[in-house]
Amino acid sequence: MFPPLALLLPYAATVSASVHIWPSPKLDALEAQRWDQDDTINGFSSFVQPCTFFIRGNEDGSETGRANGPDWIRTAYHDMATHNSEDGTGGLDASIRFAEEQSRPENAGTGFQNTLDVFVSFTTRHVSLADLIAIGLVTAVENCGGPQIDFRGGRIDAAEPNAPGVPEPQGDLNAHIASFKKQGFTQTEMIGLVACGHSFGGVEHKPFPEIVPELNDPNNTLSVQHFDTTFDFFDNKVATEYIAGTSQNPLLVGANDTTNSDKRIFASDGNKTMASFADSSELFASTCASLFARMLDTVPKDVKLSDVIDPLPVKPSEVQIVLGTNGKLQLSGVVRLFNVTVDDPDRTVQLLIDSHSGETTTTTLALDRFSSAMGGRVQSPFYAFNLSQDVNHVGVIELDPAKGIEKMRFNINGKVEDQGGVGFKVEDGVVFSETSCITTVGATEDDDPVAGRFDIAVRTGLTPTRVFLEQEVKDSINRTVVKETDLERPAQPVSAGDGAYEIWSIQVNDANTYTIGAEIDGGKFSTTDTHSLKDLSACTPTKRRVWHKRRPGA
């Protein structure tokens, strides 16, 4: 196994010169999903930690032999394998979600739907299902002993199924070479990609009874014949056991030689590639890192991916600014310091708030939590924007609404972090007002509110082209899109915040979750804080809706 940090630079050099400038909503969301792998808000590495975890395994341990990580890796390859490098169609675009693709013989088994069932709940307007499939492979490999893999974002979920593309085990060598060539990989790369993918997982009896018999193993009740002896962990044993002649890989030594596709692929260059992998775990790891990244970047020709998403060394997150009922602006959030000692008692983190009037206020922040990535090889503390220094509570910082906030900076042990002088800009021109309230409660105390009023505070003198509510919804093919509902500027707006803001209001007749959007000076802006009637208090006076029973025949 390669050294744990062989492919990860120390903190001082971790972040490349190409990191993006915060805020950038899409890149910020992708960066969090990729680098805060076990964070309580963004991460899903808990689904592959421990690496033996299988989401469909019974609690009594009666279903064993499978793990989520191998399913995530297989899902990424099978989704990508529809790519046609000649015409640029297909690729990693989440077309595997369509029943038509999952019903094909090349996609037998329950692993794809098991995987998608996890990922779909993490999709947002900024993070597509296709991006999550890619991040899923990165998370599975990195958290189970594998190398750091470059990730680019911006994949678009397909609107329809793609053509078949995954070579099946019974295909001959020429068919496999042709299939991988169509995907964009050479014969040598085919050997490497199969070996890398088969460092994890195996073949299950139920979907492939012609390849794997019932194993009758109480420790492997699903009868999964594994590709190597460490099926849930990345290492080069898929190569060392092959070269040593001890492999039990069912696609190497299966009773039916017709389906021994790995045997034909691995030996197709006289075992040169596999021997080099067996001789050097470092070579195997670096090759897999490169090939996995290539695979993830294989997308339809009209999709333009971002640069490699490197972690921001200092990154604000969960930043919210609202106008309180007391007329003050209320700022809350956290800041993440990437890959530094989590509980350094000598570290001082200060938030510097630069107002529109040019004044700067300073607040010392408290340690709130930490996230990790790469199986704990990277750990990052979060410091909260609060005044109480209570690590169990994220409070708010109150600001003079007239002065407001233009940008943030952070002073960490005497060094000011400000993104090369631009600072961390905060938009306070259009914010949610806590004067919002429920006008009609549900029929019972357990029911959601029926109706309410959202008050949006617009800075006096600001002339937005539009102000609107945003709601993330699913379209007809289950992609996340944003539905916008415009507010109208009142003829005589109510003043708030000692005249610094005016209130625009809109009636809301559901308990869905909304963000706020605005078009200002030709640009479009969205808040990151979410709001729902369920989070509000009742207006005064309030009424409970009375449900009348219909008379018979009425």
Automatic annotation (TrEMBL):
Leader sequence range is 1-17
Q: Looking at the record's lineage, which domain of life comes first? A: Eukaryota
Q: Which InterPro entries match?
A: Ccp1-like, Haem_peroxidase, Haem_peroxidase_sf, Peroxidase_I
- What does the entry give for GO biological process? cellular response to oxidative stress; hydrogen peroxide catabolic process; response to reactive oxygen species
Keywords assigned: Heme, Iron, Metal-binding, Oxidoreductase, Peroxidase, Signal
Q: Which residues form the Plant heme peroxidase family profile domain?
A: 73-343
Q: EC number(s) per UniProt?
A: 1.11.1.-
Report a single Gene Ontology molecular function.
metal ion binding
Q: Which Pfam families has this protein been placed in? A: peroxidase (PF00141)
Q: What's its job?
A: Destroys radicals which are normally produced within the cells and which are toxic to biological systems.
Q: Which family does it belong to?
A: Belongs to the peroxidase family. Cytochrome c peroxidase subfamily.
Q: What is this protein called?
A: Peroxidase
